[in-house]
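[Meeting: bench + compute handoff]

Bench side (C.D.) handed over the final construct sequence. Compute side (W.E.) agreed to return the predicted structure before the next meeting so the bench team could plan truncations. Sequence as handed over:
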Amino acid sequence: MLSFIFIYAVILVALGAFIGRKAKSASDFFVAGRNLSSGLLFTTLIAANLGAGSTVGVAALSYTHGISAWWWIGSSGIGSMVLAFIVGPKIWRIAREHNYYTLSDYLDARYSRAFSGIISLMMSVGTLALFSGQLLGIAWILDVVAGIPKTQGVVIGAVVTTLYFAAGGLLSSAVVNIVEVAVILAGFIVAVPFVWNYAGGFEGIKANVSRSSYFDFFGMGSTAIIGYIVMLVPSFFISPGLIGKVFAAKDEHSVKVGTAWNGLVQLLFAVIPVIIGMSAYSCFPDLSRADLALPSAMKNMMPFFAASLALAGIFAAEVSTADTVLYMLAGSLTNDIIKRFITPGITDRALLRLSRIITLICGAIGVVLALRLESIISALTIFYSLMSVSLSAPLIFGLFTDRASNFGAVLSAVLGVALTVYMTYGGFGGSLEVLGVKLNASTCGIILSFVVMGVSLFFGQKKSRS
């Protein structure tokens, strides 16, 4: 099984390096020459969105909470639909007109250089946490299935991802993602019937689990579900990595079709890791940690050929999302920070070379962080909370009203993040009750950011949205 993964990893790196030879400019690296069809946009988006959180993480959630774990990926799919039909087409037109590479390019023009710089710095910190979460997913799988220690598993994931992405950026990953998506979907689709039958189907699971909330679509509780919706729906239509990929579409039709198919597949895929996690709990209720649910199911509940394909699918899922994270990091650090604030006169070729170097450095930093984090979901929550609270209100108001101001954008982001951090570390007891519903830290933070941004409209002057 390990040799199978090794061969697969070599193929990914070789394919990425081959395609990377065509990356001759920063435009190729960041937006694939603005030539992605709806099919390529779909594969590179869905490859980005089915990662450690959507596989190992959601299986862990369903192992603990049951069917209501669907809301993690379900919320992501809803956010993708908003990107497809509301945010994506509009911001694509602006990016095409002004030759923007990243979301920060838009924020710089719409608000100010200072605001885009602050956001880029925060996104860099959060994105490193997200990258480390993907590496953890790879490590848990390789540890349980192939006996590879956590440290070595993290390093393997980082090496494969950084090598093929550094070769050609989005141009390389868009093509490599075709292979990865095919393997991801095949691996998980094949895995489900074996796991389901091993657990005895719904009746078998129900016989081994006494908690009624385990089979309740809202069994996780309103606080957690509302928290996921508020945190994840915006994250999937304001994510710098996803919007950067939308910028690479060749036309508006490709934006709508490719992104909508990505959202639909997420909504359908959401049930798969839930089934696997619930089946694993039914058969192995005493695992030392919930993150082991998916790898344990692979190791014990499937025949060898199915487990090998599933392992390749999970490995592909984690690696494909990790390359999107590296894409965000390279964009934030090189185009949005170094080029904008440190070396504004940098040549296109030098920017391309710098982006490759930064990618390799971020891969090494991600390894260090991954070895210190304990949970995939905790790593992803850091990123999604920070991104949703700081970016949602400025982006939405900036796209759809001329009265959105730089002052309002900065104030909404700062106050929203401040409240989130304060509540996360015990302020107000960690939650606020509104109309009988307890709202968690990130939910309160994002609500405050929208309120502050809305109020600021009455004090701001009109500014062009482009």
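W.E. noted at the follow-up: The chain has one domain: 2-382. C.D. will use this when planning the next construct.
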